[in-house]
Amino acid sequence: DADLQAAIRAGRLGPPAAGNAKSIYASLARSGAAAAQLAAAKDQISTAYARQAGELRSKGSFGDARKLVVAGLDFGPSAAVKSVLQDENKEIDDAEKLARSAADQQLRQQLAAQRTKEDNEFKSQLAAALQAPRQTIDSARNALQLAEKLQNRGVRDAMVVNARRDIQNKLLAEIRATSEKSGPDAAIRFAEQASALMPESAVLLGQIV
Q: pTM for the complete prediction?
């Protein structure tokens, strides 16, 4: 839904903002939108809450950041997005600990080393996901969540920054391969799932004909 995407991009996730994402979701539900569309909308809104929480965390507004995480969890996202929000909650806790330990250099070093180790582990997982010879909807979802997690943690490596584009291109290749192997109907079904996974991608949307 274009209005929903616009509200999310503008950061209008809930009341009292006019034309907020939650009110648009409620309208979709009242109009009888498909369950899959509603579930995808919930995940998009809850993911945006996680992203906004990360922005507040980076500014040191830990209490307000936690409120956004709670709002995202209360909206009832899928298990995968719930995990993203829970991860963000841990990031808030870690960031607050770092902020409070300004006088304790050793603790800061330990926390920073642990964070670097975690970042490297997540980057290794993302690299493996991006190098997979085939990209299924599930593997693409996993890779997108890893990229989102790394960006929320402040990692700005080229691999992380370009991950969504690379995943989009792999999904596009899978659509074409599916068309050649199984025919256009199967390719369209795959394209519909891929577009639902990356609703901002005009390229994937264009494969649904």
A: 0.69
